[in-house]
Amino acid sequence: MSTFGFPDPAINEDMQPFYEGTAQRRFTMMRCKQCGFWQWPYGGCRKHDNEPYLANMEWTQASGRGKVHSFTIARVPFNDAFQVPYVYAIVETDEGPLIPTNVIGCAPEQVHIGMPVTVVFEETPTKRVLPKFKPA
Amino acid sequence: MRFCVVGLGMTELGHVPGKSIMMLETEAARLAVVDAGLHEADIDGAIQMKSDIGGGIRMRQDDAFPRILGLPVNIYMENVGRGGENVAKAFLMSMQLLQLGICKYVVCSGARDDWSRSRKFKKAGRRGTPYIHKENAYGAMLGDSPPGFHGMLATRHMELYGTTSRQLGHIAVAQREWACLNPKAFMYGHPITIEDHQNSPIVAWPYHLLDICLQSDGATAFVVTTEERAKDCPKPPVYISGIGFGEHLQSLYWEKRHYSELPIQTARDAAFGQASIGLNDVDCAQFYDCFTTEVLMQIEGYGYCKIGEGGPLVETPGMIGPKGKIKFNTGGGLLSSHHLGNITSVSEAVIQIRGEGGERQVPGAEVAIASGHGGEILSGQMCSIHSSMVLTRSAT
Fold first, then answer.
1. Of A1, A97, B18, B124, which residue is most buried, by most CB within 10 angstroms?
2. In a domain, A69, yes or no
3. What mean pLDDT do residues B241-260 have?
4. Range of the domain at A22
5. Are residues B179 and B321 in the same domain?
6. Does residue B82 form part of some domain?
7. CA B375 → CA B87, B142, B175, B395, distances in Å?
8. Is B137 within 8 Å of A97 when comparing Cβ atoms?
């Protein structure tokens, strides 16, 4: 039983579609309708003038594949909602954007930079679905 | 028009239970005003440097240190800064207020109660650090922690350049040696060895406990005024000769080098350019050192060696520490003295330029640099900004 409870993120309007996607086991990132430039999290296209409210960007299903860009292995629990050890990582998606995540499905010691990984969905105690990654 | 730091006020630093943040910054402001040879009635501008760590924002509209202390200010700015660059922004604003004639003397005060707050959290079953709850897509729900996300920089640097934990340990040891020359440092009298570093528990691999900064209570304040008025103040003026900034926000989230370099270049070029100095002119550097890798990246980024060559440099005998060639974090820094963000680096730079360093004084220090963070660590609002300041004994 966690004293502080699971730290469910405060989600604003901009990220709502992303979590609606994960709830349906879809991993989406923002993509420019004109040139296919990918962004995560929400953000504008760096190659085109952006339309009002980034209207040229849309949440689009991505491959869900990538490789570990960097990581750390938590040995001390900073929140007792989490069981150590666990891997906190940044994954470089095949599409380009980096995303913070946990690498699961293998021993923490096996994780290394450059390791190919694929998305897997995990539900939090608060019933939110988060994209995590496992060895490909 | 030139501007100087003429007052420095530092409260007790370290574990200071039972004092509110506001009382701490009030006391630091009082000490700075006294140090500047002024009276409360002389101060017409006040800036509160943001007291929360990282991205947290604490509402501060309930009261303010100028009222508590009785400063007849005509402007008070609060929550200045974002994460580790607070003094650079506060000085930038002070200089503008002085330049426009809005103020004659500006006091900038900043406090933290991180240690006391972390004790409260610990009692409630949570370890380590005051709670940061980020919005949206970032780390809290993934179990992040400051060493957990800052450690990404270390892992990456190790992968790219073969840097080792032992090399990072040399930075921790060097700063502890400096702290042992500074009676006000929290770790004064507690020397460490490389073996101590290597044997300290792993908090978030690759970071050992001794790669990680302290958490502190306390406050420090500065009085800033014009060169003309500085001549009437009792302490030697410390010239603010250059200020610059760099931002990872310019290309957040997909620029890979963000995890192996800090955005130092534009900050350094602007600050060094205004001051007309080069790296060879720098007598001591006060780097933002929340973790050991940040120091390594600044040794590289400021040009003491090439990017990626910091590891071999710091383990070379005679390069760092009090007897070393490169004098940095001469008070012990965040790792071994106290943690007030970049207030710690700026106060140490002021002390060195004034020649008040006692046993740790760098002989004849004329030019100091003091930096603020700059790591893009999975939350754009946090520490993606690097600040660089050049503080000098004379007008450059």
1. A97
2. yes
3. 82
4. 9-62
5. yes
6. yes
7. 17, 19, 20, 31
8. no
Closest approach of chain A CAs to the CA of B150, in angstroms?
Answer: 9
Q: Are A33 and A48 in contact (CB under 8 A)?
A: no
pLDDT at B118: 78
Per residue in B124-144, pLDDT tens?
A: 666 555 555 556 667 788 888
Q: Show residues of chain A in contact with B201, CB under 8 Å.
A: 75-76
Q: Give percent helix, percent strand, percent coil of chain B, each to the nearest 5.
A: 40, 20, 40
- A-chain CB neighbours of B148 within 8 Å are 72, 74, 78, 88
Examine the domain organization and report whether A77 and A119 are in the same domain. yes
**Count of domains for chain B:** 2
Q: Are residues A51 and A70 in the same domain?
A: no
The answer as to whether A1 is a domain residue is no
Distance from CA of B156 to the nearest CA of A (A): 6
Residue B325 is predicted with a pLDDT of 97
Chain length of chain A: 136
A11 neighbourhood in chain B, CB within 8 Å: 135-136
Say yes or no: B32 and B67 in one domain.
yes
Parallel, antiparallel, or unpaired for β A116-123 and A129-135? antiparallel
CA distance A53 to chain B (A): 18
Give the angle subtended at the CA of B112 by the CAs of B67 and B150, to the nearest 5°: 145
pLDDT at B320: 98
Is the omega angle on the peptide bond into residue A116 within 30 degrees of 0, that is, cis? no
Tens digit of each residue's pLDDT (9 = 90 or more) over B12-52: 999 999 998 889 999 999 999 999 999 999 999 999 998 76
Type of residue at B228: E
State the alpha helices, DSSP H only, in chain B: 21-35, 65-69, 86-99, 114-123, 146-161, 165-179, 194-199, 227-230, 265-275, 292-301, 310-315, 333-336, 342-354
β-strand pairing of B238-247 with B3-10: antiparallel
pLDDT tens digits, residue range A56-91?
A: 999 999 999 999 999 999 999 888 889 999 999 999
Whether residue B253 and residue A43 make contact (CB cut-off 8 A), yes or no, is yes
CB B30 within 8 A of CB B41: no
Name which of B102, B174, B101, B106 is nearest B360 in CA terms. B174
Contact B142 A79 (CB under 8 A): no
Report pLDDT digits (tens) over B238-247: 999 999 999 8
Contact criterion met (CB below 8 Å) for B210 and B171: no
Domain range for B265 is 144-214+245-396
Task: List chain B residues with CB under 8 Å of A130.
Answer: 141-142
Check whether residue A77 and residue A131 sit in a common domain.
yes
Classify residue B13 by its DSSP letter.
-
